[in-house]
Amino acid sequence: MNNDEIDSRVVLMCGISGSGKTYYSRQLENQGYRRLSIDEQIWGRYGSGFADLPPERRKEIFMDVTAELFVRLGEMLENGEKVVVDSTMCKRIKRDYARNICRKHGVEPAIIYMTAPLPVLWERLSGRLGNGPDDLIVSHSDLMSYFENFEAPMPDENYMVFKQTLYEKYNQSPAYVRFFQKQSPQLAYDTDDCMSVHDDIYWVYASAICLRFACITAFCNICHMVLGQETRKHCHQQLDL
Known about the structure:
Layout: E1 10-14, H1 21-29, E2 34-37, H2 38-46, H3 55-78, E3 83-86, H4 92-104, E4 110-115, H5 118-125, H6 140-149, E5 159-163, H7 166-169, H8 174-183, H9 187-190, H10 199-227, H11 229-239
Parallel strand pairs: 1-3, 1-4, 2-3, 4-5
């Protein structure tokens, strides 16, 4: 999906924490959109201390800030501005509410649904240090809760999907691609369904393939050092690397 495909004054980002919403919305910001970010509002009021608050208090704050963001959205539409809403939009009721605000101002919003497998989300979030609004700490238990309770957009919501796959993540070299596809041809395609319950299984299998590939590469290098170039060449031919 390209930014050129978006034809709306309002873009509603949608996706679980760590799916890349802020990264994408900042690209739109560079194209003239005004970005409304719940994380920035929360950081401005609570800073890194937000992550230390009890879950119920954090939920309460999040709901209050979301309500304020919707008011601000209406005001910006009144002024004729282009807006990208950088938020999870994790429930259908929230998306419907934002959509109704837009329609009252004669605008049909575009919904951009960012998806990524659960292991990829956790890998990104586990590296956060709480150093800013784009670096808010999300615990593993919180991520699991977000993942399990997230309501993906329905077909009637007219959304666009930005998919990120495990296969793309580990597509590191031509030799690796051939090895990866040879070991599991279906894996390169099945991971396109990023929200599938099979993601965890694929992640484990992909990790095993990565380990096997590393071991084979190390073995070939040892052969090269000990027995010479011809042995290494034969090893590569046998493994189709």
